[in-house]
Amino acid sequence: xxxxxxxxxxxxxxxxxxxxxxxxxxxxxxxxxxxxxxxxxxxxxxxxxxxxxxxxxxxxxxxxxxxxxxxxxxxxxxxxxxxxxxxxxxxxxxxxxxxxxxxxxxxxxxxxxxxxxxxxxxxxxxxxxxxxxxxxxxxxxxxxxxxxxxxxxxxxxxxxxxxxxxxxxxxxxxxxxxxxxxxxxxxxxxxxxxxxxxxxxxxxxxxxxxxxxxxxxxxxxxxxxxxxxxxxxxxxxxxxxxxxxxxxxxxxxxxxxxxxxxxxxxxxxxxxxxxxxxxxxxxxxxxxxxxxxxxxxxxxxxxxxxxxxxxxxxxxxxxxxxxxxxxxxxxxxxxxxxxxxxxxxxxxxxxxxxxxxxxxxxxxxxxxxxxxxxxxxxxx
Amino acid sequence: xxxxxxxxxxxxxxxxxxxxxxxxxxxxxxxxxxxxxxxxxxxxxxxxxxxxxxxxxxxxxxxxxxxxxxxxxxxxxxxxxxxxxxxxxxxxxxxxxxxxxxxxxxxxxxxxxxxxxxxxxxxxxxxxxxxxxxxxxxxxxxxxxxxxxxxxxxxxxxxxxxxxxxxxxxxxxxxxxxxxxxxxxxxxxxxxxxxxxxxxxxxxxxxxxxxxxxxxxxxxxxxxxxxxxxxxxxxxxxxxxxxxxxxxxxxxxxxxxxxxxxxxxxxxxxxxxxxxxxxxxxxxxxxxxxxxxxxxxxxxxxxxxxxxxxxxxxxxxxxxxxxxxxx
Amino acid sequence: xxxxxxxxxxxxxxxxxxxxxxxxxxxxxxxxxxxxxxxxxxxxxxxxxxxxxxxxxxxxxxxxxxxxxxxxxxxxxxxxxxxxxxxxxxxxxxxxxxxxxxxxxxxxxxxxxxxxxxxxxxxxxxxxxxxxxxxxxxxxxxxxxxxxxxxxxxxxxxxxxxxxxxxxxxxxxxxxxxxxxxxxxxxxxxxxxxxxxxxxxxxxxxxxxxxxxxxxxxxxxxxxxxxxxxxxxxxxxxxxxxxxxxxxxxxxxxxxxxxxxxxxxxxxxxxxxxxxxxxxxxxxxxxxxxxxxxxxxxxxxxxxx
Lengths: 380, 327, 305
Prior knowledge:
heterotrimer, B: mainly alpha, ABC transporter involved in vitamin B12 uptake, BtuC, two-stranded antiparallel sheet, 71% helix, globular, C: mainly alpha, two-stranded antiparallel ribbon, 11 helices, 2 strands
């Protein structure tokens, strides 16, 4: 295997300097988005991760945090820095799929463990899966598939679907269609970063649809929801949790009330780990946790659980310990499939108002023990 | 010997000393940073030919940087999976050989520069700034929406391309390679400035009418300068892609154009070593400030502002006085 | 495509164009009078939106929020002009680009430092929300109609200001001959501060108006900034009339291109390829328009060479 050999060549120098000492300690490099418009997601993931470490009381994890500015080149350079200068054992933190695709393949080839707190591009779930790569969030298509399943169950037969014109957008619509049985009233790709959706809303109005599915992460979703609510079209809306998450829900406001969205986590999930997490997060940071915070929290707990079973210097044993996923997840049952991606329930949530705060309430389950569509392609 | 010559000599010494120190103490990441400085400086050297010599303020050099990067990405990704790029009319195979990739990168960005130049050079001043920006943005949106090579996600090349006789995966060998290329580009750029073409170009920048009356068409001079400039920046793009083993549409974004321009202005427009100083300083600041706070870009902004307001003519201009560089 | 849908899309293009005009007017004034390229214009748009969201959150009044956006952006503009921008008038475009690029970094991250990393809430006031039915049966959001009207009123006011008032005469004189108006005893540095603050206030107003139907977040000004540059270059830099024509042209091209191109490709391609290719080409369209205009008229539609 030439890939391995070359990667080892590149790292020999550093390994010789004495990277991992067998003292049970682990050095984690966290590359995440802490500045610019997308900073909210990275900050939540980081805060969730650090909270879990704090609650564990363990001082065996050392974390180096760097800001990738949501730029793939910067992320690649930071990964080089983490591996070459900081000698980290584990990498984590990346929010965006395109940044993950830039960093993960070369990091895992250099024998670093990568724990994904958010992104799950299909290329890393199927043929490109790797024993050193563990996804603690979801495969990118999962929440969209759940939305498709929900739309069918709810009896919608003519859904209008839209997403930005980039790979995650096409994946989202493919994922939705995979589980949606009705016909489509229309399928539209918008420009990435678009802020005005008047033209698309006019098409929805004219299409005779009975419902709308959209995937527009970040500010795009806020803009769309506000304009959609104001347009008076009034058809029911289904979307993945990203556009209805705690961080941005306050910015959408009443326009989001009643919207159904799919998520593998909700703050009202009834299990001990989640109750502890939600209470501790509010106590520590003074705001409600988001999906991203829960994923960061789970990632840290997964890491801690593996550290209790194996030493990082024994990579084989450490990977096996990670794969057992023997930790109390905030989403209840959690296990890894053959491709190191989660097998988990995906819930249906509805946006509600609690006092002044807009938040989500779980109203059902869309898919149970859901396995992603690429697992079979993974030869591992 | 002018003061600038001394400064350049000192800089060369420093640029060799830092990696040597990093290499002897086994700090691979410093070597990677130095390689990045050299490659970005190379992009700046390219822009400086249009900007400094020709007075052409191009806000779209990201187009050439990106084309170079995508030339590398396309060739290497096909070679990676042994899938030819085209079988008809002739068989074109992908390649992982740096010299071939560099040649393709330079030729394709030179062709793009020729086309963009022919259309853009009809305008001048702010219009030129903006039309070059427009071409950059066109390519940016094109690559985002073009699914074949990853679209917005970009494309990873898992193993760095090869150069005959070197193991490019060893940081210090790739560093030396990029230093040599940068050195050659600097030498070429200095020769160009002193050549009759360079003198005519400088004259056309200062007074286009006068050049025209002696029978030289400024349009042609500028076009040639623009093409050379684009080709060098394209080469830098291919090398930058190899440094990161990754390409993405952000190589085409207006931020990239802005950054290349900042390297040149920071160091000193029209100064031979301007882009080198600018790139080194910018990377150093980014590296040092990144750890200081989440809001480090405020400090970066303040520092840049201070340089524009108080260090006129860039750093070399401030240190060496206001005499014209290598003219 | 039905006539109704077509008419609604034309209105959307018109509204987008009017919004762009508010941004572009300030940019083109500042360039025309002071010869300055201001990349930080988008940051003033962002400041306006944040000020409006903050005041609306405190008081609940949309009118107060709009006034706050005007005041905050004008104040920020005047402050920037007095501390930084006025040192740049005599510099070349390069220094201006670098300095205002630095200002973007400072203002964006400064705003994030003050308001946090999460988007803010700003909504359409209840008396302007919901759709109305126009003659011909078009359902159209009232707020967007209000934006069109507000934009046209501002455009009219701006033309009147420049054609009829003392300041307008000074502005036009400044565009024509900078040395001359100083010689005539006009306090040129005060005029410059005023023009810059006026341009900033317009950008801030645009930010607040748009913020109510979009996301108020850090970095929101940058895509608009690039579009505003495209507008003033198409229209001819320094010309308010050019900015208006350019803005409408860009607004309509962008909206109609995004709607019509996928349909056009669907005539001879399979639907999913047509939507992807149509959408890609749609997002390149305004840059193609700009390149074509400049190739035919190197100083824009209404620019003087």
